[in-house]
Amino acid sequence: MVGNKQQQKQLGLLMVAALALAVAPSPAWCRELYYSNSSSSSYEESASAASRGSEGPMVTAVIVFGDSIVDPGNNNNLKTQIKANHAPYGMNFTDSIPTGRYSNGLIPTDFIVQGLKVKQLLPPYLGVELSTEDLRTGVSFASGATGYDPLTPVIVSVITLDQQLEYFGEYRKRLVAAVGEEETARIIEGALFVVCAGTDDIANTYFTTPFRSVEYDIPSYVDLLVSGADSFLDKVAALGARKIGFVGLPPIGCVPSQRTLGGGPHRNCEEKRNYAAKLFNSRMEEAIANKDPKTRTVYIDIYGILNELVVNGAKYGFTETTKGCCGSGKIEVTGLCDSRFVDVCDDVDAHVFFDSYHPTQNAYKIIVQNIFDNYLQFLLA
Ligand SMILES: *[C@@H]1O[C@H](CO)[C@@H](O)[C@H](O)[C@H]1NC(C)=O
Ligand SMILES: *[C@@H]1O[C@H](CO)[C@@H](O)[C@H](O)[C@H]1NC(C)=O
């Protein structure tokens, strides 16, 4: 199905050029924190700002499933090209460490745990030592370039969503061993679960490889994704989740690499990708409205705010909204965004996108604030 080795390699490269974009949630009061006028928006600053408040954590833990938007480094030890554990990724992280986060600094999951006053960073489940405290307060199982279409992670050899659920089972056992069954149940019941994927399905699997587009038109491919996402939400609820934030798709056609691949000589936003994203979003919003209220599932729109940053970037201090900061900014993602081969811009904070697929820390911060402002009350109610 995926062709021979050679084809697979070429596809891998194409996919690297096309990669994924998905964002996750966070509360209203953190607007002040993040925007607290500091000219620099360093991690330390947001972090210490987040810990200044007097109230305790707003949830017991944050548990995340999904793709590169919420992956803090789970792909680092995989045999895949989809990794961000090399410079210039992390150039604005503490000590410029390229942790595997797909940005110049923090990613949405970090802003979410800070905003909820749970901790400063959400660690990956794989590849790092996790203390009992780390386990108690949650981890991310996300894997860059995975998706709801079972073919998507296979093409690029990353972790499937079902495998992420299996890792959760392992995580739960470790938590039980550390804090006991009763406390584990309390933690899971009080946790915010975040599900964020789907961009790679559309940008990579559908629009870049031939495997699905020969068989499916956009509405029927969206059907496939909706059925995958809907059943994944049921599986997360079955883990004992009581609060789930489901992150919708961004305007995929406006991401720099997708402008380059589909937007013609002027690199316009590519309308078919945007249409697919909007169709998926409206279908999921509907599906979520019909879910069993025993698990509070909230549809979180990020299409609007990212589109706003792209269209009205100047209002938010962005002067470059169509190109990434890494390399030419038109195509470089993961393996192609590598300090050994390309330079970075000297004004990363004025860019919406860091590589040609993923937002900068600055843009992520605004996106998460927007999510907190609009959805926190529903998630925590
Ligand atoms: C924010 O920055 C402006 C301009 O530097 C300054 O006038 C204002 O007092 C600052 N506000 C806060 C809350 O620090
Ligand atoms: C990010 O890092 C670059 C290069 O070291 C630096 O010029 C820039 O000011 C940093 N931005 C932030 C927000 O720390």
TrEMBL record:
Q: Which CDD domains match?
A: SGNH_plant_lipase_like
Q: Where are the transmembrane segments?
A: none
* Keyword tags: Signal
**SUPFAM superfamilies, A to Z:** SGNH hydrolase
Q: Which InterPro entries match?
A: GDSL, GDSL_lipolytic_enzyme, SGNH_hydro_sf, SGNH_plant_lipase-like
Task: Give the signal peptide range.
Answer: 1-30
> One GO MF term, please?
hydrolase activity, acting on ester bonds
Report any Pfam family annotated for this entry.
Answer: Lipase_GDSL
Q: Does the keyword Signal apply?
A: yes
Q: Which family is annotated?
A: Belongs to the 'GDSL' lipolytic enzyme family.
Matching entries from PANTHER family are given as: GDSL ESTERASE/LIPASE EXL3, GDSL-LIKE LIPASE_ACYLHYDROLASE FAMILY PROTEIN, EXPRESSED
Name the chain's protein.
GDSL esterase/lipase EXL3
